[in-house]
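Batch manifest, entry 17 of 40.
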Amino acid sequence: MSFEPKEAYWTQQRRELLRWFEDRAPSFVEGYVGALRLLYTPSFPGRIHFICHAIRDVYRHLPTLLGKKSLARPGEVFPGMVKDLAERWKKHPANPIPPSTPAGSDHTVSPQVYKCVQRIVRKSEEIADQLTVGNQLVIALFDSHDRRKDEFIPRWIIKSFDAEYDFFVKRAHLAKSVDSIPNDDGLAEHFEAFERAFHSLMGPYFSGKEELDAILQDTNESSG
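Output type: structure tokens
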């Protein structure tokens, strides 16, 4: 779907981001446009959750759309592994240690259970060492355009992406009580900070687009 932004809040930066989404991630266009519209509709029920959920999904799913391998998150990995451990424990319960055994553990686990625990420990170490969600998105965006070999990702961008992710993910789900419903203090500022950091990585795309548009315009004028 193609949008024609007319509202006053559609700054040049936001128009460029919209063009990028339309070109590189069209399935994300409605989410970005909707979140932005809700940002300026303070009376809309549940707007904070909807906005934050949309931005959270950009973080988590855009890298995969841009061709980066999706890294597993604890909530996706450990429930299944713990379920497997419980099933193995039922099939191969711990055996009591004979009284003559030196003081220590009261039970021994089966090889099947031990191997399962080992896998959980190794996976925990892998996830602890992997890149943050914000860093994954930064790399995906940075690598999505042709760049010089000497270019690098400024550290402030990674820190900004991580900080904004923490803000949005904490407010993405419905609250468990009325007292814990988040207010919109800082919502606009964090949304704009996310946009600025996102836009800062898109320089090659926008400059290349402008050059291409200029060439096409010259061509059309010449042929006219």
